[in-house]
Amino acid sequence: MREMSQLRPSASFSATLRVHVDDRPGAFAELARAIGDAGGSLGAIDLVRVESGKKVRDVTVDAASADHLESIVAAVRTVTGVEVEHVSDRTFLLHLGGKIEMVSKSPLKTRDDLSMAYTPGVARVCRAIAEDPAKVWNLTIKQNTVAVVTDGTAVLGLGDIGAEAAMPVMEGKAMLFKEFAGVDAWPLCLATKDVDEIVAAVTAIAPGFGGINLEDISAPRCFEIESRLQERLDIPVFHDDQHGTAVVTMAAFLNALRLVGKEPEDVRVVLTGVGAAGVATTDMLLHAGVRHIIGCDRQGALHRGRHDLGPWKTAYAERTNFDDFAGSADEALAGADVFIGLSGPGAVSRDGIASMADGAVVFAMANPTPEIPPEEIEGLAAVIATGRSDYPNQINNVLAFPGIFRGALDVRASRINEEMKLAAAEARSAERAMA
């Protein structure tokens, strides 16, 4: 199985198997061998109960993909003396009923509590805010609340899957805000792809939030939506797919160059995926002094001689690839120092990575499946990183956006500007360099 051989087992593809195993010496060893032969990783083993001639166990198994997990279960079913009662996908179990909830900060145990938290006492607080709108920051949740807004058009590496299907990702985003920065966030998945309607909807709900995190909105619409909301609102509007990605990539880039002894102005960078994240990352790299960048889409390198480019890709070609290189991403990698993948699986090959310069840096950041599996290029690069949380050297937006919003909310910033983003990247880089 190609996918199994290239990707290692992960908790993201794990299941608990309820199995009935013959109560005889060696029976469980045969079960474990079947799991291992199928490429699975055996985890927790719990004895549920003992029956006549059988032991019932819950066995946790990690796989490399959904298909791989199915093949492991199929292998277990072939073991003599083993009966699989049911299979519970642990990732689906984690999502049952959603992953977040609203919790009251003040107890409601008496009639007096109720009269202060709600009517009649709350009316005086409402009047105070009506008389002085600035008091909303001190007397409501606005001071610590962010809206996570999406239309479901560019979810992870899944594409346009709709507002409902985007909910699990947005819930996860809200969890990360709370766990890593103490920020209360709530997912708002909009049933529209119309730019005007999205801008109007976010503008209408903005009074209840201290910041707006735009998420998984496809390019080029995301650029206009963010720009228009920044003009209309007096709270930070931050498209994390653009700027969060750029911040964490820049931090990793700076640290990787320290490790290989190279300077930003001297390296050649090849980037795949010239969407929201690719454009923002490129702009930050240019700001940091990188002079040689080639951005590639599915048709190859963006250059000034291509006539199939839309407005934002045309603008991208004008400020990068000054030699007008016109080949594929793999061809562009020959002699390159850094590869940054913000696209999808298969964007580059092992041969392409092998052709890079000594001390090569490879950031294969596509989620959930990297542009090229790290296992396939082991030994070919000095630094290999992904966007996945189950691999070492993780470059993921969670390393930036919670702290950026924490700082913006604490100082009541009305905007997250370029200086703040670069400062966040440099701080993150310095922190990792000292670790």
Describe this protein's structure.
Helix content is 40%, strand content 20%. The protein has 17 helices and 14 strands. It has helices at 2-6, 27-37, 66-77, 90-95, 111-117, 121-131, 136-139, 163-181, 195-205, 221-232, 240-260, 276-287, 311-319, 329-332, 350-354, 401-410, 418-434, and strands at residues 10-22, 41-51, 54-63, 82-89, 145-150, 184-189, 211-214, 237-239, 268-272, 292-297, 300-301, 338-341, 361-364, 383-386. Helix 8 (163-181) links the parallel strand 5 and strand 6 (184-189). It starts with a helix and ends with a helix.
Q: Which terms would index this structure?
A:
435 residues, alpha/beta, 6-stranded mixed beta sheet, 4-stranded antiparallel beta sheet, 17 helices, 14 strands, 40% helix, 20% strand
Structural class: alpha/beta
Unreliable residue stretches = 1-5
End-to-end Cα distance: 38 Å
The biggest sheet, with number of strands, parallel, antiparallel or mixed sense and barrel status, is: 6 strands, mixed
Integer-rounded radius of gyration: 25 Å
Overall mean confidence score, pLDDT: 93
Strand order of the largest sheet: 11-10-9-12-13-14
The fraction of residues assigned to DSSP E strands is 15-25%
The coarse overall form would be flat
Helicity range of the residues?
40-55%
**Number of discrete helical segments:** 17
Number of strands: 14
* Multimer state: single chain
